[in-house]
Write a structure and sequence with these properties.
By secondary structure, this protein is of the alpha+beta class. The chain has five helices and eight strands, in the order ββαααβββαβαββ. The protein has a five-stranded antiparallel β-sheet with strand order 1-2-3-4-5, sandwiched between helices.
Length: about 160
């Protein structure tokens, strides 16, 4: 996808992106907005190695002109639904249309797998993601607690 002279590409989630994700997801703001629990390098590496064997997890990286800037995917995949997630780790690329492109990709991927719906868990303080989900027709389904909501899109 091309935005002006900038090109957004979606690629395999590599060890390079895993290392960048370590930085991104340990940034306090990104960690809060993505609801990321504490994790260490060893558990991150074990998780990464497990991806090759898993059918319940789909993951991609996003690059802007070949620069890795984030990751996205669907976890807890079943035959009927899955939990979408996404983040832009390089903050200078926020509000540049990347989230919109990731969301379109995820929805098309979910449809290609004949899922009936997708859902996401959001921090109530993550206004950007909330608005993006609303734009694509996600509806609030329930509150998990005073800080987290679940939104669902029927496909």
């Amino acid at each position: 996808m091309i935005f002006g002279y900038k090109q957004i590409t979606f690629r395999e989630y590599s060890h390079e992106i895993l290392n960048k994700s370590w930085e991104w997801l340990n940034d306090p703001e990104i960690k809060r907005l993505t609801l990321t629990p504490d994790f260490d390098r060893e558990s991150q590496e074990v998780w990464f190695r497990s991806l090759k064997e898993r059918n319940d997890y789909y993951i991609r990286s996003v690059c802007w002109n070949d620069e890795p800037i984030g990751a996205f995917g669907i976890k807890h995949l079943t035959s009927t639904d899955g939990e979408i997630w996404y983040y832009i780790g390089e903050k200078k690329y926020l509000r540049k249309g990347v989230g919109t492109q990731m969301m379109q990709y995820l929805i098309e991927y979910a449809k290609s797998k004949n899922l009936k719906s997708v859902y996401t868990k959001l921090s109530k303080t993550n206004i950007g993601s909330y608005k993006l989900c609303e734009k694509y027709g996600f509806k609030e389904e329930r509150e998990i607690d005073e800080n987290i909501i679940v939104m669902r899109l029927c496909l």
